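Section 3.1: Structural characterization of target chains.
Under the original work plan, the team committed to producing a structural model for every single-chain target entering the pipeline before any wet-lab resources were allocated. The record below documents one such target. The sequence was received from the expression subgroup and is listed exactly as submitted; it comprises 291 residues.
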Amino acid sequence: MSAHGPLPNDPIPVSPEEMQAFQDFFYRKTGIRLDAKRRSFTDRRLAERMRLTGSRSFRDYFMRVRFQPGEQELQHLINEMTVNETYFLREDYQFDCLVNNMLDEVVRGRAPGDRLRIWSVPCSTGEEPYSLAISILENWGRADAYDIEILASDVDSRVLARARDGLYEERALHRVPQALRSRYFHAVAGGKWQVIDELRQSIDFSLINVVDPAQMARVRQIDVIFCRNLLIYFDEASRRQVAEAFFDCLRPGGFICLGHSESMSRISPLFTPRKFPDALVHQKPLSVSSL
């Protein structure tokens, strides 16, 4: 070990008890269990953060993570431990379901000009919320009649900064037709594409940890939640906790879309499955008596 902590590829001198304490702490804070299958990944990220903070031992670093005012190092660690990979119009059959079925049900009985709230979580580097906005503008004929608010959140502060910038490599746009590129992006130096200002400014990006009840309590009156490929990283207890928090966030009759490998029926009985022509989604009942 160097005077400034281990190099990123060095083994971390840590006892099984210390590692278990760290894993339990990270689980309580994020709902993500860092199990043995991810140990080499975890060790590399820890070694890098120890080096950058000048920590002389794992114990010193863990104390910093736990007790630093403002939890700044915890946020850095969360950024390192989360994986973010996505692209525009990914699993777009759910976007088709949104504009062909869900939104029409959501606005039933509402007056023109009423607000609709759609939440993308985790939004990663922004491809999903921007795809939602583009899909609605292009394919829902009633978009101009309502005040549509798209919220986007993630637990990783770095990807949120990238999402706000709206700057992407060519590979992120490989499924975007040229006509949509011309309307919603402009080419910039280095072969990159940037989302137009009007669209970037229409998305509300924020840092939210879905296993933090205080943060989740701020999110209410949501009509549709897109939460795809997040719950697979949680254990059964955390998945149930987050599902119940999403239930509280949604308006009666609101919808939630999960990833193709996720099943709400195996997580919580609170939601009703709805099979539309384009996708299977889950709905919060219109009344408690419907449960």
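DSSP finds eleven helices and ten strands in the chain.
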